[in-house]
Specification:
The protein is mostly helical. The chain has a single domain, classed as MetI-like fold, CATH 1.10.3720. It is 77% helix and 2% strand. It is built from 13 helices and 2 strands, in the order ααββααααααααααα.
């Protein structure tokens, strides 16, 4: 393989990856801008924003706020907990680390429907508010992702940074705040992004435990898809559910690139 071909491969792979993400959004974008699109026409016969208007009337704004709040709370709780768990597992000094790791990863094995149904009764008997129960269960569901990311990050972390900071007189809190957090910022951003996605995209736990009192975008999308003839509204809501995580993904990627430059 020539040197020119080797240089082209990363760009080609990035282009294919971008196409993999973008191409499924093209039909949604067309439907979202279509007032009328019937077969066998390749493109909409009438263009307009009726789907966007219908989505707004159905509470798209409230759904965005609810999803952002839910995803943000889950990320705020699951990221530091995952960092603590990942650090403990990576240190290899934790007793029964294999068992602890298996317990932390267990939410990936149990179906969310079973967990939601089982804990719904318990939360009701304990008089836990619906929103708090949803946040609690989704935080537990996000822990496997944040723990795995941070365990990998701490596994490659050079403890010499901590030793040098302590030699210079830094306290344990200063070591964490001034040394570990800056070095591990890309991993923390990736863990927070995954935890945010768990809260942002959840439907089962929100509808079962929340009981419909917590309005999020997935609930609005599911409600809209149950009807017939409102494809434009469904497309607008679906695009609204995709764009914020995509923007966050770009931010996380930028943080990762900046972190690699700093380490280099």
């Amino acid at each position: 393989m020539t040197l020119g071909a080797r240089r082209l491969l990363p760009g080609l792979a990035l282009l294919l990856l971008a196409a993999w993400f973008v191409l499924p959004l093209v039909p949604l974008a067309l439907w979202g801008l279509a007032d009328r699109w019937s077969a066998p026409a390749v493109l909409p016969q009438e263009w307009g924003l009726s789907g966007v208007a219908e989505a707004a009337e159905q509470g798209a704004g409230s759904g965005v706020v609810g999803s952002l709040a839910l995803g943000g709370l889950v990320a705020m709780l699951a990221t530091p907990l995952g960092a603590l768990a990942g650090r403990a597992l990576a240190s290899r000094h934790l007793p029964a680390s294999v068992l602890v790791g298996a317990v932390l990863l267990s939410p990936l094995v149990v179906p969310p429907f079973v967990v939601a149904m089982g804990f719904d009764v318990l939360l009701l008997r304990l008089a836990v508010p619906a929103w708090a129960g949803v946040v609690l269960l989704l935080t537990v569901a996000a822990l496997p992702y944040t723990t795995y990311v941070m365990r990998t990050a701490y596994g490659g972390y050079d403890q010499g940074f901590d030793d040098e900071a302590r030699t210079l007189g830094a306290s344990p809190r200063q070591v964490v705040r001034l040394v570990q957090v800056p070095v591990l910022t890309p991993a923390l951003a990736a863990a927070a992004f995954l935890a945010f996605l768990v809260g942002w995209s959840d439907y089962v736990v929100t509808v079962l435990v929340g009981g419909g009192r917590l309005v999020t975008l997935p609930l609005l999308v599911a409600s809209a898809t149950s009807a017939v003839g409102n494809e434009a509204q469904v497309a607008a809501l679906s695009l609204l559910a995709v764009l914020p995580p995509l923007a966050l993904l770009l931010i996380v990627a930028a943080i990762g690139r900046r972190g690699r430059k700093v380490r280099a």
